[in-house]
């Protein structure tokens, strides 16, 4: 791995994506509140649409950072060992934690509880947010082969800008076709009854790596050609803003106007799931827009503002693993202190409290000698 210029905007973008994840999950909780009014629904809709960039941004960042940093020989063994220690082990610890929290060991015999835990490890089903870890781990395992694929795509550019545009458009069209075929693929695999593959393409389709590789490849191409990427991003910034605006208006209309008046917002928000052809186009534009915001913060914001996002970024992985439990605690606080308040205000308070608690817990755990096994952050002795 070569030493290169630090990309400050990546840390900021990662911090923004983590904050957006916690926001999405906070909104999901209050979207089914019986007391939610249409005005609250409209506000939550706009916030949810703005936060949808989070998962694609994390995947985009993964591809960009890997290909930006690892441009020479790859020592696959040490690469995997580091990811196992920093990513897999904390995931295993938190999977066990959420399994115990769900009462699995209290309600089932030990052998059955162990089998359930093992199933949770491979499916990410011990908590609603762990699907992402199950999806992203194969990208690290397959990195040498993905690197060959991306370099082959990059080599096809041959320094020709028009050819690069055509290839990226081709990748986008291929991804759109894949998403259009997704319902057919689910029905086909359901009918074929193939062990492992059938559930991977049906029950667990939302964490199937195939459906997210597009964002990884885009990030990888950006990492390989970072100067070109930043130059193009500057040239198309107003187009990106316009596209995001059009899609935001469209999806707001879908959520607020395409359902019976008595349809709950929990049901309405299902129209904003990630794996849809139109949503994919919106998400690419939204990631590019938020990347521009991160660039601007890195270049013009005060040190205090930048440090805030960098802190969120540094503790984002441990915070991501912990935030589902922190939200539970925040919901309890909300029921005790803010019951009867406006839904949007309650959601905002819970979001900020859970965000701060997740980061604080991760920071405190990282200060312990065993903290790396829980947070993925190496222990640093206090001076």
Detailed description of the structure:
The protein is mostly helical. It contains 19 helices and no strands. It has helices at 8-30, 38-51, 54-69, 76-101, 104-107, 110-123, 131-141, 143-155, 161-192, 197-201, 213-224, 226-235, 237-257, 265-268, 277-300, 303-314, 316-337, 343-366, 372-375. Helix 4 runs parallel beside helix 17 (316-337). The radius of gyration is 21 Å and the shape is globular. The two termini are 29 Å apart.
How is this structure best summarized?
This protein is mainly alpha-helical.
What are the defining features of this structure?
383 residues; mainly alpha; 0% strand; globular
Question: What is the fold's blueprint, element by element?
Answer:
Elements: H1 8-30, H2 38-51, H3 54-69, H4 76-101, H5 104-107, H6 110-123, H7 131-141, H8 143-155, H9 161-192, H10 197-201, H11 213-224, H12 226-235, H13 237-257, H14 265-268, H15 277-300, H16 303-314, H17 316-337, H18 343-366, H19 372-375
Helix pairs in contact: 1-2, 1-3, 1-15, 1-16, 1-17, 1-18, 2-13, 3-11, 4-6, 4-7, 4-17, 8-11, 9-15, 11-12, 13-15, 17-18
